[in-house]
Amino acid sequence: MIRVDNIKKTFPGANSPAVDQVTFNVNEGNICVFVGPSGCGKTTILRMINRLIEPDQGDIFINGKDVLEMNPATLRRTIGYVIQQIGLLPHRTIEANVALVPGLLKWPRDKTRQRVLELLEMVGLRPGEVGHKYPHQLSGGQMQRVGVARALAADPPIMLMDEPFGAVDPIVRIRLQDEFLRLQQTFKKTICFVTHDINEAIKMGDYLVIVNQGRIVQMGTPIEVLTSPADDFVLRLLGDDRGVKILDLTRSGSLMESFQAPPKTSAGINGCIVQAIQPVKIALEMMMKNNSDQVGVCSGDKIVGILTWNSIKAHINRVSGDGP
Ligand SMILES: Nc1ncnc2c1ncn2[C@@H]1O[C@H](COP(=O)(O)OP(=O)(O)OP(=O)(O)O)[C@@H](O)[C@H]1O
Ligand SMILES: [Mg+2]
Asked: Could you tell me the fold of the domain covering 247-320?
């Protein structure tokens, strides 16, 4: 869907490129997350995709079409953009902010208004309550929701989201992430998502692109990156709780010992059970709560295996033991 091939950008007067030798693909319907420290080039990469910044070299294709040969204004209308620091127009109402792109596309007034109301509701805002307010009258979390609604307004197949949940407290942030993931299950947009928060990256990303000093240092699915970090930089970025993060992405069923002959009841495991699809982290919590070193693993209401503390420990040692 999106193919970026060896792009490079050096800003005037800079000693080194802000972005260099960057190559990646984003598959249709996936969320590709760019993660790395402040100043590593994340925003610059994003803004080259919708041509707010022109690369010095390299190619960018969307559905096989060369972006650099497209009209920038037309291009941007097909790509939703949630900018860092939200970027709502301060002197326009919330409704007018969300209606920005439909306005540019000259949608009829009725259709635009209907779409705006629908979107505000979709992102969890009451149109009657916030529609006529101005951005400064909203909380940080509400403004971020408006930013997302605005980017979705013309139903673009592609979204660029630059720290879309950055300016809110951790609890609201988790709620916005959950809501967005739920929307994405039906939307199936192709999304480039920027964050400097590794936990957000692992949670939101189908695929991670880890950037440092303008270059990609590693790409892969969250579990690939967690289980085989490319170097010390990635290892540090993943944090000291890398093992716990792995357990959060590993299903209990994948580490259990299957029963040869399944027991009829959960009596032998004292009702201490998890579903096979639940993360191993949940199984661990269950063990702690029940003061047990094993849990039964169920598929529906049938017990299909047993997961022991020793097998979890062995798994962690296997996948995270030796680092890069
Ligand atoms: N318009 C510009 N002119 C000159 N230098 C720029 C410009 N935009 C970005 N830079 C520089 O390019 C580098 C990458 O910046 P960029 O904004 O892409 O980083 P970032 O990863 O998005 O950081 P943050 O997490 O802080 O948003 C930085 O050194 C920055 O100072
Ligand atoms: Mg940035």
From this structure: CBS domain Like (3.90.1280)
